[in-house]
Specification:
5 helices; 9 strands
Length: 222
């Protein structure tokens, strides 16, 4: 979540990642913020900040999604449902947020994963966040086809035919929540860069909307 705060010499954006109950602070240098606040109407200033935060959060989410997908080793389209749309700011809250959930991603969606009779499951992943490459070999794994036509990899919990235990890839919230994770680092870096750039642009647009600075009328020749 982001909540820009007016401070002595800069605007800050604090946000909390709900998926791991961890906090990150995104700071943007805006030394002219106090002067802008004096010149703009309160509503105009707030609207400019809202636009900048909404745009920055949306752009940073796209960056985070790319890294989450690479960290899991699955196509971005497969993890898309596990990353919510940005919840935008409102008139009463300058927060923008998105959530990475516990979406189950079948292991067969991971690049290079395969299941063969006799050899079971073989999958190889390369974590962007520590741990390096990891091989997953489960000799007794097999593919289950559901009545709806879906497929997942499973192993038996005991000697009986049932119950089964599914094998899944890393969840989006895990890829995002780990300390100093690649996705978290990329999100913060993108958020800082985007907000630093967009805040100044949106404030300048608002200044023009409110007639500050003064713009001379066009010379019609009269």
């Amino acid at each position: 979540m982001w909540e820009p705060k007016q401070r002595a010499a800069h605007a800050g954006a604090d946000h909390v990642q709900r998926w791991g109950q961890m906090g990150l602070t995104v700071n943007v240098d805006a030394s002219q913020l106090e002067q802008w606040a004096k010149e703009l109407s309160a509503r105009g200033m707030r609207n400019a900040i809202r636009r900048a935060v909404d745009q920055s959060a949306t752009a940073a989410r796209k960056v985070a999604m790319d890294v989450i997908a690479k960290d899991i080793g699955a196509p971005k389209a497969r993890i898309k449902d596990g990353v919510s749309k940005v919840k935008r700011t409102t008139q009463t809250s300058l927060r923008a947020e998105f959530t990475a959930s516990k979406l189950r991603v079948g292991i067969l969606n991971v690049s290079g994963a395969s299941v063969s009779k006799g050899s079971g499951l073989h999958a190889s992943t390369h974590r962007l966040t520590g741990g390096g490459s990891a091989n997953l070999d489960v000799r007794k794994a097999f593919v289950v086809t559901t009545s709806a036509g879906g497929r997942f990899v499973a192993i038996r919990r005991g000697r009986e035919r049932l119950p089964l235990k599914g094998i899944y890839a890393e969840m989006p919230n895990t890829a995002m929540a780990q300390d100093n994770s690649a996705a978290q680092t990329a999100w913060k870096k993108a958020a800082e860069a985007e907000l630093s750039k967009r805040l100044a642009v949106e404030v300048q647009k608002q200044l023009l909307r409110e007639g500050i600075p003064y713009s001379a009328p066009a010379d019609t020749g009269d």
